[in-house]
Automatic annotation (TrEMBL):
PANTHER family: DIHYDROMONAPTERIN REDUCTASE, OXIDOREDUCTASE, SHORT-CHAIN DEHYDROGENASE/REDUCTASE FAMILY (AFU_ORTHOLOGUE AFUA_5G02870)
Lineage, top ranks: Bacteria, Pseudomonadati, Pseudomonadota, Gammaproteobacteria, Alteromonadales
Gene3D superfamilies (UniProt xref): NAD(P)-binding Rossmann-like Domain
Pfam family, any one: adh_short_C2
Protein family (similarity comment): Belongs to the short-chain dehydrogenases/reductases (SDR) family. FolM subfamily.
Record function comment: Catalyzes the reduction of dihydromonapterin to tetrahydromonapterin. Also has lower activity with dihydrofolate.
Reactions the enzyme catalyzes: 7,8-dihydromonapterin + NADPH + H(+) = 5,6,7,8-tetrahydromonapterin + NADP(+); (6S)-5,6,7,8-tetrahydrofolate + NADP(+) = 7,8-dihydrofolate + NADPH + H(+)
Name of the gene encoding the protein in the UniProt record: folM
Protein name: Dihydromonapterin reductase
Record organism: Pseudoalteromonas neustonica
Keywords: NADP, One-carbon metabolism, Oxidoreductase
Taxonomy, superkingdom: Bacteria
Length: 239
């Protein structure tokens, strides 16, 4: 098996689009899921290694790392896509919400990066090309969010870790982030919400997952970019 790319949370939306993109390229992938969406069976049928992972506890994170190491001794890249878009309005227990957001968006990537660095270094030594870690953060890191305070704080922590890990692992592993705003709507989003959201960016469109795929491909093909965050926000910062 050639060195695979690990994608966390690949059962739907951006993670699923990335998984299908790499499969179409003939790139080996390992994906994680917590809920076994029908797409997981589809990915498995196309050769993806699909590993259950519960990042809500330290034991769950450690168990995932152990399971992954049974499948490969090297990794070309780790793409941290697993996420939870949760907010204060839906969670009267603010303490639990904050802990959950920090765990999935900051602690899990932190522990996984440390635990899998040896596998990434193995790829670098075999290929003489830097391995990669890519954190999927969020546009809200730039300005905060009064409705998603804990979520925004956890994504900001992840963006800061991008810089720290880039310095720690250079030059053998490049570490970057991608910070999207709207990429794709949910099926249940109302017409009113869609119209309001589209007006928040200069480009005014629903760009689709291809924008994230292109950004990931750029970072993977580079030998030089590290410690940076690519904004994929349609000029939203200028509105």
């Amino acid at each position: 098996m050639t060195s695979p790319i690990l994608i966390t949370g690949a059962g739907q939306r951006i993670g699923l689009a990335l998984a299908k993109h790499f499969i179409a390229q003939g790139q080996a992938i390992i994906v994680t899921y917590r809920t076994r969406h029908p797409a997981i069976d589809e990915l498995s049928g196309h050769g993806a290694v699909c590993v259950y992972a519960d990042f809500s506890t330290d034991n769950g994170i450690n168990e995932f790392v152990s399971q992954l190491k049974l499948h490969t001794n090297s990794l070309k890249a780790v793409i941290h896509n697993a996420s939870s878009w949760d907010c204060e309005a839906n969670n009267p227990d603010s303490s639990t919400l904050f802990d959950n957001m920090m765990r999935i968006h900051a602690k899990a990537p932190y522990l996984i990066n440390l635990a899998l660095s040896e596998l990434l270094l193995n790829f670098q030594q075999q290929q003489q090309h830097p391995a990669d870690i890519i954190h999927l953060t969020d546009y809200v890191v730039e300005k905060g969010s009064p409705k998603h305070i804990a979520y925004a704080a956890s994504k900001a922590a992840l963006e800061n870790m991008t810089k720290s890990f880039a310095a720690k692992f250079a030059p053998n592993i490049k570490v970057n982030a991608i910070a999207p705003s709207l990429i794709i709507f949910n099926d249940h989003d109302s017409d009113e919400y869609r119209e309001k959201t589209l007006k928040k960016s200069l480009m005014g469109i629903e760009p689709g997952c291809r924008e994230i795929i292109n950004s990931v491909d750029l970072l993977l093909s580079s030998h030089y970019i590290t410690g940076r965050s690519l904004p994929v926000d349609g000029g939203r910062h200028l509105k």
